[in-house]
Amino acid sequence: MDKFYEQLLTTSKNSSYKTLHFIMIFSIIFATFYLFLTILTFSGLYLVSAVLVAILSYVFKVLRDKQYKEFEYIFTNGNLQIDVIYNKSKRKTLFDEEVKNFEAFNKLSELKISNNVERIKCIPFDYKGETYAVLTLGGRRAILIAPDDEMLKLINMYNIRRR
Q1: Which top-level group of life is the source organism from (predicted)?
Q2: Could you say which of 20, 64, 66, 145 has the lowest number of CB atoms within 10 Å?
C-alpha cells in the first residue's frame, strides 16, 4: 500500500519583508517619475536615473522574495522530500532522501550534534513547536525539521535504525 503525506509549514511576513516591499514600491514610483521627466525634458540624465532606480527596484524584489519562506515536507513510500517555497511562487528542493538511510532521527534536544556539523534549517523563523533533526552524510549534515504527528508516524515506520 502506498504511503503519501504532505505537510506545509507557513509563516508570517517578517519586518524585513515588509520593509523591502515598501522600498521596492517606493523605488518603482521614483523610476516612473524619472521616466516621466525623461519624456518631458528629453534628458538622458533622467533616463539613466530611471534605469538605475528600476534595477534597484528589481534587486529589492529579489531580496524581498527570499525573505518569505514556507516549507513543504513530502513523504512518499519511505522517501522524505523537503522543499522551500519562496514568496508562494518559486520552489526549490532542499532535501530528498530515503528514510531508511537516515543516520539518526530524533528531537533536536535529545541528539548530540557537534559544532562542525552543517545545519540546514527547514523550519519557519517563527516556529515555536518541537524541532527534530535528521543526520545524514555520515553525521556531517543535520536537517532541522518540524514534523506533525502523522509525518512522525510515517518516518518512524520506515526508519529501520529506530526499531
Answers
A1: Bacteria
A2: 66
Amino acid, res. 73: Y
Task: DSSP letter for 107, please.
Answer: E
Does residue 125 surpass a pLDDT of 80?
A: yes
Q: What is the spatial distance between Cα 48 and Cα 30, in angstroms, rounded to a whole number?
A: 12
Q: In this model, does residue 108 exceed pLDDT 80?
A: yes
Q: Which amino acid appears at position 58 of this protein?
A: Y
| Measured CA angle at 92 (ends 78, 62), to 5 deg | 160
Kind and range of the H or E run holding 104: strand 104-107
Q: What residues does each domain of the chain span? A: 4-10+69-158, 15-66
pLDDT for res 161: 66
Q: How confident is the model at residue 1 (pLDDT cuts 50, 70, 90)?
A: low
Distance CA 157, CA 144 (A): 19
Half-sphere exposure of 41 (CA within 13 A, CB side): 11
